[in-house]
Structures are given as structure tokens and as C-alpha cells.
What we know:
Distance between the termini: 36 Å
Number of helices: 5
Largest sheet: none
Oligomer: single chain
Shape: elongated
Helix content: over 70%
Amino acid sequence: MLMAGFLPFSAIYVELYYIFASVWGHKVYIIWSILFIVYIILIIVTAFITVALTYFQLAVEDHRWWWRSFLCGGSTALFVYGYCFYYFYARSGMSGFMQTSFFFGYNLVVCFGFFLMLGTVGWRASLMFVRRIYQAIKCE
């Protein structure tokens, strides 16, 4: 379930550096169109990965897909928070208690928002998929 977030994270990995550099490194971010395209790709990849994992779960006759689809979609946020550690220690020049607590505290809140957003995308995509495949069943 945790590895479900790796593919969507790899879709946004490059843009994360520029976003972090603009928020925490006082650089100006000017490529808003690319950011929007990456956001759309993130949503689509998250939906497809979650639907595929829901299908695999239903194929082994496990009907409890609700929370698993939410957690699979939201697991990208854990990778983003892991990237926060990499950025803080390898790329930023921050030090001290206040900078560390602000950086990890704000990023925890942002990653929780990502978790809720992508979890909802994954759950909604799985719900549409399950309703579609069960509507196609013919009972005689």
C-alpha cells in the first residue's frame, strides 16, 4: 500500500525542488503552466494506480477496498514528506531550532493536505470503477 505512492511521487519529483526553492529558498517560481500540467498528471496517475490496486484487491475477492483505496491514493504524501527531509539536510542551508520546527511543521500540514486530497482522488476513482464494473454484471 505504501509503494502505491511511489509512481505519483516520481511524476512530481522534479517540480518539488523548484517549489521548495521558491517557498523556502526565496527564489521566484515562474513556470506556472508546467506546474499545472504536473498537477494534472499527478491526479491522473494517482487515480489509475489506485484503480489498478483496487482491481487486484477485488480479483482476490477482498471486498474491503474503501479505506485501502484512500490510503493508496494518499501514500504519495509520505514520499513528499520524505523529500522534505532530503531537501532540508542536502539542499537548504537552514539550521537552528526555529527554522527546523517551522520547516517540518509547515511541511507536515501541507503533506497532510496532500494526503487528504490524493486519498480522496484515489477513493473517488475507485468508487467510480467499482460502480462501473458492478453495473456491467448481468444477473439472470
